[in-house]
Amino acid sequence: MSIFSQRISQGGQGYRVAVKDTIDVQGLPTIAGCQALEDALPAQENADVVNAALNAGCQLVGKTNLHELAYGMTGVNHWAGTPVNYHYPDLIPGGSSSGSAVAVAAGEADFSIGTDTGGSVRVPAACCGVYGLKPTFGRVSRRGVLPAETTLDCVGIFATSAKMLKTAMQVIDPSFEPTVLPKTIRLGRVDVAADPLISDTIDAFLSRLKYDTTPVVLSSFSDAFTAGMVVINAETWRACGDLLETGKVGEDVALRLANAANTTDDQLREAEVVRERFTKQVDEALQQVSVLVLPTLPAFPMSLADALAGKTDLSISALVRPFNLSGHPALSVPLQTADNRPVGLQLVGRKGEDEMLCELACVLSEFLPQQNNNSVEY
């Protein structure tokens, strides 16, 4: 099946929850889809988000597979296993939280927990046709999550409905309180480069809504993507670079890690300048509109066959990674083209307004057409 690295049956009789295998569950090793960590000692205690789920009466059903070390976007993992995209089995599941996305799409969990450092919740959510939320940076506790130190990574969630996404946030974030949307909502349509069919699908959906839409230009958007790559490379090298010495890191991740070792202090300093500039641009844009809207993916997901043959695609994160750099909450809503290909609508809100973003997703879900797909049998 390849969804789960480890099956679990812990907790109460409430919502079934799957947890990405970068998140500690007491008594189980955190392997992160990497053979170099297969002999890791069992975690001494639960991550905070796991405790929150258990305290809410949820049932843990398993730890999910992922792109090795959460350092890739296809979701392919030759050692641990590649979760098959439930609704679109010929396409990649997306990474890095591939198993967490597939678990909810396949009905193996009511909601799942993943992590998002450069789009690793929103990309697989869009690829797999489910909802995915990256909260405001720092809002959800990362204690007990790999890597321990980061300026980008957020614990996020997947669900098959916006309502369940909101419920899941109430479980893992004690400060989350459902809200009511303001009477006036103005959408800011961000000008980005994307496949014309994706853009047309997004715009056709927006045209059905009752909200005013205004164009938004973020001049540092592409710079923010590049800067986000610099920061994730530096931070992942610091956290995982020593694993290269084992010779047990998969080829694609090993090559990327080796290149990450060459990240310079000057590149990092420039990335922080871009972070400050881009964050200011997003904040200013969100003073004029209620939420930013744009595609989650710039292109359709590649075929699973191409990915298994070794093809990679970091550019699939081009429209999501900038908001890891800025720290704003971002949510992917599943859409579909007329010929049944997955499209994600990304919503980006003001920092700390995760509740409003989830509530808006609930409203938008009422306008979604019935989706048709050919699901894989598990």
Automatic annotation (TrEMBL):
Single GO MF descriptor: catalytic activity
Family indicated by similarity: Belongs to the amidase family.
Recorded superkingdom: Bacteria
Record organism: Amphritea atlantica
Pfam family, any one: Amidase
Coiled coil: none
Sequence intervals crossing the membrane: none
PANTHER family, alphabetized: GLUTAMYL-TRNA(GLN) AMIDOTRANSFERASE SUBUNIT A, MITOCHONDRIAL (PTHR11895:SF7), TRANSAMIDASE (PTHR11895)
Signal peptide (UniProt feature, chain positions): none
Stated name of the protein: Amidase
Domain Amidase: 17-173, 255-358
